[in-house]
Write a structure and sequence with these properties.
The chain has 5 helices and 9 strands. The protein has 229 residues and is an alpha+beta fold.
Length: 229
């Protein structure tokens, strides 16, 4: 037993990459650190795991303590464990991520987080620890997820245009999609319900409004349907 003691001197932490979509832009939630190390920097919401706490419970607690966000479903994506990733000692972190509609959540930073703010994914400041590496990995996972699961529709209003959903996918994927091909592929899936209505109070020609048929999607999944964009 004496030989094993040095193996129990590592700490665990959780870090969360909370992506948000709002006003046609993909953003990420950062906190302004009011505690050492790296005090006075913007970072991903994260903290140490308590000794009597499960990882998933810890991720939820830390996110709530630092940002005020709750009832956010997060996926565990990877463990980061470089020996020197934390200046105070050996800390292994488990990363989580999710994509939310910003308008549905109100930020209320507390504990040692002096501020919480949504940053455009193209305007993220220099991050401490290995948070830049974690963010890059989460971005890749998000791109893969939106291509294979219709999570993008959950960020749309109940009724949306084809341009709305294309703007979201372009923002998340970081590319410009061919308008004709994107719409042809999307409509061929037969997962959109034509409401029969059009936009109103717009300066341009009103576009047709659609709804996502979630019930039909769940039914098709049971038959082996593969969502691919």
């Amino acid at each position: 037993m004496e030989m094993l003691k040095h193996y129990f001197k590592s700490a665990f932490s959780v870090d969360s990459v909370i992506f948000g979509y709002d006003e046609g832009a993909l953003k990420v939630l950062l906190i302004y650190r009011g505690a050492k190390p790296y005090i006075g920097t913007w970072a991903l919401p994260g903290d140490l795991v308590k000794l009597d706490e499960d990882l998933d419970d810890s991720a939820k607690r830390v996110l709530y303590d630092l940002t005020g966000l709750s009832n956010v479903f997060m996926d565990q994506i990877r463990t980061f464990g470089k020996v020197d990733r934390h200046p105070l000692g050996r800390v292994i972190t488990v990363a989580y991520f999710t994509l939310v509609k910003i308008a549905d959540y109100k930020l209320n930073p507390s504990s040692w987080a002096k501020e919480a703010k949504w940053y455009a994914i193209t305007d993220v400041p220099k991050l401490p620890f290995d948070h830049a590496e974690i963010l890059e990995y989460a971005k890749k996972k998000l791109k893969d997820k939106v291509r294979h699961q219709p999570i993008g529709f959950e960020l749309m209003p109940k009724e949306f245009t084809l341009s709305d959903i294309q703007n979201l996918y372009e923002s998340v994927l970081g590319i410009t999609l061919d308008k004709r091909n994107f719409r042809k592929k999307l409509l061929a899936m037969n997962l959109l319900i034509d409401t029969g209505y059009f936009q109103d109070s717009v300066a341009h020609r009103p576009a047709r409004l659609y709804r996502f048929d979630k019930t039909k999607y769940q039914h098709l999944i049971q038959k082996g349907f593969s969502f691919e964009l």
